[in-house]
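thread: overnight batch results

M.L. [08:02]
morning all. the overnight job finished for the chain we discussed friday. pasting input first so we're all looking at the same thing
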Amino acid sequence: MNPSACEKKTAAVSPLKGKRIIIAKPGLDGHDAGAKVIALTLRDAGADVIYTGLRKTPEYIARIAIDEDADALGLSILSGSHCELVSATIDHLRRMGGSDIQVFVGGTIPAHDLDQLRSLGVVAIFTAEMKLADVVASLAKHLQS
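M.L. [08:03]
and the structure it wrote out:
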């Protein structure tokens, strides 16, 4: 069945329509303005977004992602402990049966840590310099059904 013109237009305007995305702030970092901007941007792109709030444990975040049947989990980390927090969160996801959930990371991420994060299973890494439209396009590409 061919999509109608209206369906094509909706897909172009809402590239994340039908996707369920969790945005979380693991660890002790108390700055969440960037996480909220991403959550609103993804919502405006059609995603069903759940923001877990500040200072959540990796285990809690993984449980929420699984309980909410998330397609993706975004971790916002500004504290410098991104490698440890991402590793712990992905370990919990795997142990709880959520290895199919795509994990992306945003925040203050030094270039020398990018390869390590990717080796942990992170599908995309976003920094403050990136345009919001590029974040949406990247996630839409990674979450294609």
